[in-house]
């Protein structure tokens, strides 16, 4: 039966750990000059972008190239899923040509409906509901920095968006406590909470003793017209030196990028924690290679 990766909940705890182990193995192989070009030799992956991205495109393209596969990049105006032709027809036709499809889109329904009719794996490169590939990179970065997840506490500051939805699901699977600080009207959607998640509106309460302090932009793609209103709402939800003074002494800062310096995070903090943020960005490559291997090999 074909497997898709639309949500963190599409994998079990054991599979999640297996993916992280494989990602770490693949990363070490790249660093050691290992030839990985036979891993997906002859396989083809389509990248469909309804939302543009720097890291998503580069990491998937480079990952497939490193493993010997090929990539076809398509933009929304070229295929217009659900407009020019039905999602079911697009999925069935593309299944005859390819071995996998990554879709980066707005509505999560684009992914679920395409997957319903696809006989090849569909990977969520981002939707308005979840960002599971980002979460896999986040987890790999945390595990590298703390040699595991035992005793790690996560604080997420800002908009309760797709990024934190997937992160909350992963923290629940792994038993990692996560506290989310967000304005009341911008809290994560219902259904993502568990005994390992806490939602507050006090940023200092969230950051207290945290080993990982995570933030994201206040206005995601598609919310540009609302940016000024959001800036007012999120005043006080900035990751800065004062906030970090409440975190653990060994705390790292994560940001999935792109960052708006001076808004959700200060320039000083992002520069001081550049190493962990760039590790996080790089780990998109290794985590996604593990996902591709699991689904397409």
Layout of helices and strands:
Layout: H1 13-31, E1 44-49, H2 55-66, E2 70-75, H3 76-79, H4 87-97, E3 100-104, H5 108-117, E4 122-126, H6 132-146, E5 154-157, H7 162-174, E6 178-181, E7 197-200, H8 203-207, E8 212-215, H9 227-233, H10 241-244, E9 252-255, H11 267-272, H12 274-296
Parallel strand pairs: 1-2, 1-3, 3-4, 5-6, 5-8, 6-7, 8-9
What can be said about this structure in brief?
Helices cover 43% and strands 14% of the residues.
Helix tally? 12
Backbone CA Rg:
19 Å
Considering the protein shown, what is the CATH homologous superfamily of the largest domain? Aspartate/ornithine carbamoyltransferase
Count of spatially separate domains: 2
Q: Give the integer mean of the pLDDT values.
A: 96
What would the CATH topology of the largest domain be? Answer: Rossmann fold
User: Helices and strands: which structural class?
Assistant: alpha/beta
Largest sheet: 5 strands, parallel
Uncertain ranges: none
CATH architecture of the largest domain: 3-Layer(aba) Sandwich
Number of strands: 9
CATH class label of the largest domain: Alpha Beta
Distance between the termini: 13 Å
Word description of this protein:
By secondary structure, the protein is an alpha/beta fold. It has two domains: 8-131 and 284-296, Rossmann fold, CATH 3.40.50.1370; 133-281, Rossmann fold (3-Layer(aba) Sandwich). It contains twelve helices and nine strands. It has helices at 13-31, 55-66, 76-79, 87-97, 108-117, 132-146, 162-174, 203-207, 227-233, 241-244, 267-272, 274-296, and strands at residues 44-49, 70-75, 100-104, 122-126, 154-157, 178-181, 197-200, 212-215, 252-255. The strands form two sheets. A five-stranded parallel sheet has the order 7-6-5-8-9. A four-stranded parallel sheet has the order 2-1-3-4, with helices on both faces. Strand 5, helix 7 (162-174) and strand 6 form a beta-alpha-beta unit. Helix 1 packs across helix 12, helix 4 (87-97) crosses helix 5 and helix 6 crosses helix 7 (162-174). The radius of gyration is 19 Å and the shape is globular. It starts with 12 loop residues before the first helix and ends with a helix.
């Amino acid at each position: 039966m074909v497997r898709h990766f639309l949500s963190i909940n599409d994998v079990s705890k054991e599979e999640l750990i297996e993916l992280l182990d494989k990602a770490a193995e693949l990363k070490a192989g790249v660093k050691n000059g290992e030839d990985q070009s036979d891993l997906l030799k002859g396989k083809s992956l389509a990248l469909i972008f309804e939302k543009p991205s720097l890291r998503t495109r580069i990491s998937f393209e480079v990952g497939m190239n490193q493993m010997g596969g090929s990539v076809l990049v398509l933009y929304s105006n070229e295929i217009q899923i659900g407009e020019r032709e039905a999602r079911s027809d697009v999925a069935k036709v593309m299944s005859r040509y390819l071995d996998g499809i990554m879709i980066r889109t707005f509505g999560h329904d684009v992914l679920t409906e395409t997957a319903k009719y696809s006989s090849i794996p569909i990977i969520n490169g981002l939707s308005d509901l979840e960002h599971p590939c980002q979460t896999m990179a986040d987890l790999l970065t945390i595990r590298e920095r703390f040699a595991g997840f035992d005793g790690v506490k996560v604080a997420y500051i800002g908009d309760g968006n797709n990024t934190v939805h997937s992160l909350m699901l992963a923290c629940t699977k792994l038993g990692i406590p996560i506290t989310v600080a967000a304005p009341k009207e911008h809290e994560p959607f219902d259904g993502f909470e568990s005994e390992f998640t806490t939602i507050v509106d006090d940023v200092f309460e969230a950051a207290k003793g945290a080993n990982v302090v995570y933030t994201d932009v206040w206005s995601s793609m598609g919310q540009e017209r609302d940016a000024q209103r959001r800036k007012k709402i999120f005043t006080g939800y900035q990751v800065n030196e004062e906030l970090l003074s409440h975190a653990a002494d060994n705390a790292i800062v994560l940001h999935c990028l792109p960052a708006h310096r001076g808004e959700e995070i200060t320039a000083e903090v992002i520069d001081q924690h550049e190493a962990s943020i760039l590790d996080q960005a790089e780990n998109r490559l290794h985590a996604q290679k593990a996902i591709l291997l699991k689904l397409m090999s």
